[in-house]
Write the structure tokens for this entry.
Amino acid sequence: MNKNTLYIVIGALGLFALSSYQDWLRVPFIMGMIYGIAALGVVVLLRAGQVSFGHAMYIMVSAYAVGLISREFPQVDGVVLVVLGTMVSLVFGMILALFLVRYRGIFFGMLNLAISMVLFTVVSKLYGLTGGTDGMQIARPSLLGMDLGRNHYEFVLLGTLLTLGVVLIIATQKYFKSSAGEAMAAIKTNEDRLEYLGVSAKKLMWQGYAISAGLCGLSGAFYGLSQGIVAPEMGYWLKSGELVFISILGGSVHAIGAFIAALMFEFVKMYASSIMGGSWQLILGVTLIAIIYFIPEGLTSLFSKKRHGNEELESNEATSTVKKTKEAEEVRS
Amino acid sequence: MTIDTILLALIDGVSYGGLLFLVALGLTFIFGVVHVLNVAHGSLYAFGGYAAASMGIWFAQGEDSLFLSLLALVAGAAIVGLVLGYTLMLLLRRFRDRDPVIQLLVTFGAFMILEDIQMMIWGARPYFVSDIMYQMGSTELMNVVFMNYQFWFIPAVALGVYFGLRWFLKHSLKGHQIIAVTHDREVATALGVNAGRISLLTFIIGATLGALGGALASPTTSLVPGVGAEMIVLSFAVVATAGLGQVTGALIVALAIGIARSASIYMMPQFEVVMPYLIMMGVLLVRPQGLFTVAQARRI
């Protein structure tokens, strides 16, 4: 186990410990991790310079798959639901990727947007199947055969998400450093040269797209399980925009950026809505623009500049979490 | 499906297409300078609509004067276009040397901010000022009564803007400079064009067009929060389908999408919302760079 991994594990354990110490932190942590997984999926494409304005649809598809399966077969275990939901999104993404890989830039983004809008509308209109715009309830399933109360259920979810987060960060980082991952980043730099080297950019994009759809699907399955409800709103293009926002905030230097950014996003949102009520978007927008102004390469770039930057990574995360905890405490009191 | 219905769908579609064209044209214009799709354009549309409605309530409602009603629309659009366009340009200028993705994100952030400001100013209550519709009267055509406002006013404005802009770009010095700057900023600067000022001008024209779309739409629809978010994706669809920077293309596609949309309202209402996206997907499947893009397209 190298140093980075150690720090990431410590960070995850720290979050878990914090959440058992402060109950109210659990839900924002869960949501942060869920958005983090999805944002990680968007980062995969971002490294190739492609921005998708429709990836929230994979969250929606997976969450609805979980909802439908659990409605038809109430006995199905939560773990199975997560696997099935992710698979549905993955397969869906693989099929769409077959033709989406031909497009770059704005056309790629807009096609994703178009598909997600079509899906959003279809889901909103199929009242009988999906409950229309009211959304669909998802009953709390058993986890590994255990029927848990709300508190324990959330604990298990958070624990699973944190473990999964660590695994995903390591795995994605491995992928980024693999030849396929490095070549993927080369699509952004110069796709023609890549093709001259004998690498098929379309194949790479297909792979990357499938990974990103799978990650968003995983996130969606957990979204369904933790929220207990899914509405078409989840697949609206604004949600996809938020995902892009989170992933750029995190930067594409290291996979952990997506999670730090997502947690931050969640807390800024919470903090903003507690002081501004309905106008949280205003504060969020201002904060995010300020961040991209001062940290152009994303949060992870702060650590990568120095060789021993990883120490900073953890301490920064820790202090910022502490700070936010304090802030949030002030708000509560 | 009778001839009446076809006529209704056609007129509705043309008037809606006209609005869509104005907004999409503004988007294309702004793309020419910042080389990024301006997500905040949806807010310009919404602000234009709200401002026009507020102006209408302020000095035109109940006055029974067509001139005042028109003035309210134009003033609303112009003020929003100038103020917001200028502010947005100043904001984006700070990010000019950054990755396009970052710039896109800045416009998204601006959109989030503007959405809330709009809620703060106008609240969530629907606005509806339709005096102008009645002041313009109606026309009867084949036993169907049309409001003149939609029947000829909106299409006329859209066409007027189209021809006016074409003339402006092709036959005036400023227009030539705009083409030069959007085509190649560096070379234009080297030739002595003040690129900064020309970009600002282009941006403000684009912003005003977006706001004008909203202002013209305000008498026909009630304004509610979220109209901006809906309109911006539609105009994205128009711009992407037509190909970036295509003025004539945007007109044709906006009309096609407008007509297809209103035809589907009369025939299969459940497909109304997806129609534009289906058209866009169909077009991009056959022509990945958009319908009217030629190799080395001139961006404007």
Summary: The interface with chain A takes residues 37, 39, 91, 94-95, 98-99, 101-102, 104-106, 108-113, 115-117, 119-120, 229, 233, 236-237, 240, 244, 270, 273-274, 277-278, 280-281, 284-285, 288-290 of chain B (CB under 8 Å). The two ends of chain B are 41 Å apart (CA to CA). The first helix of chain B runs from residue 3 to 34.
